[in-house]
Amino acid sequence: MSIDMKQFHQTFFDESFEGLDIMETGLLGLEVGAADEDVVNSIFRAAHSIKGGSGTFGFTDIASFTHILETMLDEMRDGTRDVTQEAVDGLLESVDCLREMLNAASDEADVDKDAVAKVQQKLEAILNSGGAAPAAVATSCVSTDDDASNINATGWSIRFAPHLGMLTTGNDPARMFRVLEELGDLLVVADVSGMPIYDEFHAEDIHISWQLTLTGDVSHEQVADVFEWVDDECDLEITELSESENLPEISKPDEPLAVAASNVDEQPKSDDRRQGDRRLSKSSGAESASIRVGIDKVDDIINLVGELVITQSMLGQVGAELEAEEQGCRDAIRIERLREGLAQLERNTRELQESVMRIRMLPISFVFSRFPRMVHDLSSKMDKSIELIISGEQTELDKTIMEKIGDPLVHLVRNSIDHGIETTQERIAAGKPETGTVSLNAFHQGGNIVLEIRDDGKGLNREKILAKARERGLVQDDELVPDEKIYDLIFQPGFSTADVVSDVSGRGVGMDVVRRNIRDLGGNVEIHSETGVGTVMLIRLPLTLAILDGQLVSVGKQTYVVPLTSIIESLQIRCDQIKTVAGQAHVYLLRDEYIPIIRLCDVFDVPARTADIDGGLMVVVEGDGQKAGLVVDDLLAQQQVVIKSLETNFKRVDGISGATILGDGTVAMILDVGGLIAYSKSMDPAVIRSRKNDNEHMIQQDRESPQEGNEMVMMKMNKEAADERNTVH
Amino acid sequence: MASILAVDDSASMRQMVTFTLKGAGYDVTEAKDGQEALIKAKSNRFSLVITDVNMPNMDGITLTKELRALSTYKFTPILTLTTESSAEKKQAGKAAGATGWIVKPFNPDQLLATVKKVLG
Fold this sequence. Notes:
By secondary structure, chain A is an alpha+beta fold. Chain A contains 22 helices and 22 strands. Chain A has five domains: 6-129, HPT domain (Four Helix Bundle (Hemerythrin (Met), subunit A), Up-down Bundle); 144-245, Alpha-Beta Plaits; 296-360; 363-542, Histidine kinase-like ATPase, C-terminal domain (Heat Shock Protein 90, 2-Layer Sandwich), CATH 3.30.565; 547-704, CATH 2.40.50.180.
């Protein structure tokens, strides 16, 4: 039977990487000198599994490397080796090395042999220096009498006298005889002289001994192998059969006895076995199992479900229209049934969508797990004592968001350690505990996932940031700046207040990239800080990238989607609250603050229903820390929309993050509030006005403008939607 | 066909053992540690238990002892999967009541040969 072992490799790699993570986490948590037995055990087990698997699946270099680790860990486990910092560091290094080796094996690439040898030598040196017991001799020591293992003997005479309780180790003489029988001709003579009287007889005990004669071309090793497991549970003599030796004569009458003896336990067993099989087939269905599926397959399903949601809302709309039109007519009952069916469809669709989305969700621990090691390394590098507290690691997040949030998170944690947490001396001087704390937390909040990075360091230096900003002309000298604005400054490109640029962070690159990456994921980041007390950074992320809770608004004949998360409030415009700044731009006095007014009809160049905005509707939104009022004609429904990428269907357009298809089949643009505010700032209001006055139908030369993008995409996606409907009919 | 309980905390080892034994026509149930194995063993009657030694929650030695204490598993063959270096592990397994052992690393053929030895 030949089995391709390659099919098990992926599972082996997956579990080995998992094992390495366990080892790493365990090693980082080990307290030098007073190691927790359970932790050492779990580290040992992980190493042991990797060794076993790599040996079985043919990765001998990994197996022999892990063997050294295992030996060392085994000694720690037995208490014959102290857990020293040196040993822990050596083991951590080996974990990295093993990761490299496994990666290479998984990619079928070559590993850096020198690097491996170096780590191996180091580890061996540690192994030989400490610990009491020398490494056990690993060679097999099964065969004891080597001189007897000569082949080509004519046969063997075997005296086999099992001890009373041999059956209770599951070793069955009858079965062993069957194995011997396959090797050659076997003659079995039972000696029942040791049989007790009936009253003292126990069916579980063996009272018989056997004299076996095996003839044929059989080696001593083959015979010894059969009895290998019962070595110390029987008296065994295996002697070479000499030609002259007489075969025992009376055998036949005794044989049935031997069989009968072994049948005592054979009979009920086979009955139970059948029963057991039946029960087995019933219970095996209850096992919880997982399957590995390509992410593309899952995404296909998610897309299809997205389409289903659209179809469902189209049908829902038709149903509602029918209901409104046909009220009171004789079809009312059928329409009622249709309505019920549609309601059920909506429920099922929503549940289907939610379950499909959940497939893509993974616990955030996948990202958090890298931080203990990072903090360990950084704190020793910078000579700061830091404790990392992780919580909420079971909070689930979309896989794509998870993959992209790792780097920004690393950057922020590094910043906290480098700039936030003070040195031990500084902390003592400030009357704080010597050990600084960085905590990572993840939790749900209002349909978002919030990642919180909190440190108890020195906090952001408001004055220093402000001075730097003035120096760079980002803030006017006499300008009064609120805290939020100050903390926002550190996200400006090239902004750094670090006195000394360290190799950990502080080159001033990064925070702007961090914010951009988070925004690309549809999230935002905010900072709260108190001097001397610490800093909290909050990253808010959407649960998924595929759907969005939106407020539909209409401008002229167009419908737009405003992400609910960016809406602060909606209000009716009062003309006396509108002020004109610099003779051009309009701002609105919202309580005690002025916010810019953005007329969507101007930005997207669609004719509004009324030119007069007095008494009109304004949606107050916030994006990138700035507020603005969007003037719209009407507020429509709030609903979940399936996000369609604009880039893949058309191209990137300023102020728009994507599009969606509504229930009636029309396309609606999803507004990118932050981008929209930035874009409207760059537009000269005078230009808009003159352009509108000059020529309503002027063909736009600027191909990147939202106006043109809007129309083009509308046409293209409307056509797609129409095509889809046509194929359905 | 005989039913076998395969116990190992390593998914790849379980996968390999199951694939090999199923290919040879045995009925295989998996368990990822001793605790799970014991629960499954109690609600079934397996003809053979193959168990790893080092496992979380309940190791193979304890599992063997627990199984032997059950009247239904008093005579059932129990094989431990053990590494070459641990001669004492073989003894620990035997002392707990194991029938025998399979030395790791092993290949599918060796596994099948050993299973045949105990199941006939």
